[in-house]
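Q: Hand in one record:
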Amino acid sequence: MTAMSNNSPFFRTLGLWSLVGLVALVSGCSRTDSPGFRSNMVAMAEKQIPADQQQQIATVLEAMFGTPDEPFVLADSGLDINKIRTAAGPVKSDEFGHETGLYRRHCGHCHGTTGDGQGPTALILNPYPRDYRQGRFKFKSTQLAAKPTDHDLEAILRNGVPGTAMPTFDLLPEAQIKALVEYVKYLSTRGETEIRLINAMSELGEGEKLALNRATLVDENLKPVAESWTGSKEAIVKIEKDPDHQLADADSIAKGRELFYSTKANCVKCHGVSALGDGQTNDYDYWNKAVVDLTKSLADDRASLSGELTKEERAATEKRIAEVSAVLHGDTLPVRTIAPRNLRQGIYRGGRRPIDIYRRIYTGIYGTPMPGGGPATPGAQGTLSNTEIWNLVDYVLALPYEPLSQPPRQQRAAMNQTANY
């Protein structure tokens, strides 16, 4: 079947139409001659979505977002299709030197065609590349659960992520940087919409079907994701600087050191008594936890086979075991624990400016065990005061220069008290 052009009147008026007709039209089409988006099989397996509903979700997503070679977006997504087309598709340039396929050239080998963090080189990288589909981003200027701003994503592209395989793309032209930012938002919006559709499918009762109309697909599932992106600027963490505070002031560093080893900030729990990142090292980030949980459910299903089950229950359990095993072996990377940052190296993945460290301490790092010390919402009460956050900033930035072999008295006491961490 010949693929429809995104410039056709059909697609241009899609925003005013019900998606029912489009879903029916696209269903059954095959495009094996170009790369396609992979389904989120971990989420599918977790919610026990049957094969026919998996196909329905894939069909709906193609109707709403197109394919890697022929992307499409509804006006309700808030995305710029022209920028997305520049980043999408195979690597090429026209007779005027205008390049397209930027994502596949620069990003796909690590982050994958779908943005699932499972590109061809992902397995050999530590940490794994970011999975955009969850809508969770670690290094940004906004509140913990809020989306990053475009400027935040641009900063990651321009600066890279120190201490990881994410390089700088600062030499790319401005227009290409912005196109890649938009494509990351496109992959993330598509991925979150998929998760919402999976959840909606899982909540259906026996015999019920998901309504394939605009109210369900767009208003209930796409729009909330799109609005989370458009509202990111309102969620920027405002930096409150104490007027009398001087960075690297010896008194502030000493107060920060005391907080680091105190039960109030409790930084020592994860970063360790020597701040080498050797504290609690057996935890997982959000992305690995999903695979850990699925692995545990598989173990529970296998254990249940030794109990008393009816013939139907045993058959259903064995089927689920086979399906989950296939997902774990074919759709996931090996699970890794998350290592707390070694603060004595002076390498900070979210940036080494004082305001960057401030934001990490204030909000925490989304998707990781790193908690925030500031208020969870504007006007709320945080664990740490603004002054205390700045004290910790000063101490963190001073840690690479503190003699490890001669810790101060209070640090030696903390070592004795936290030996079991």
